[in-house]
């Protein structure tokens, strides 16, 4: 259990999101950089990353957060801040920018099957606008 000034909590969220156009760009040095940036965001926001997996075409994040942070805010922080930081640090150097597709999967703590995540990824329609 964790505590804040006014709450005792154990809130853990599983968040999954995809690169824009579902490109398999999260490999090698790019994946390492994204991992580092996601940990920086968690540290800055007072969150605890319980598990993080960066696959070539999606990111799995299992994060513990105080109750004041709703899942949508967490997803927006991790997606928005990570793309801005990555592009600011590395886009001029490598020429490759990171962008995330619209939307995300969010689930609460408990058992999240790989089938659930696979279904989300397969159903995701890329909005190229």
From TrEMBL:
It comes from the Archaea. GO terms for biological process: DNA transposition. InterPro entries: Transposase_17 (IPR002686), Transposase_17_sf (IPR036515). Residues 8-124 form the Transposase IS200-like domain. One of its GO terms (molecular function) is DNA binding. SMART domains: Y1_Tnp. It holds the Pfam family Y1_Tnp. NCBIfam families: transpos_IS200. This is Putative transposase. The lineage of its organism: Archaea, Methanobacteriati, Methanobacteriota, Stenosarchaea group, Halobacteria.
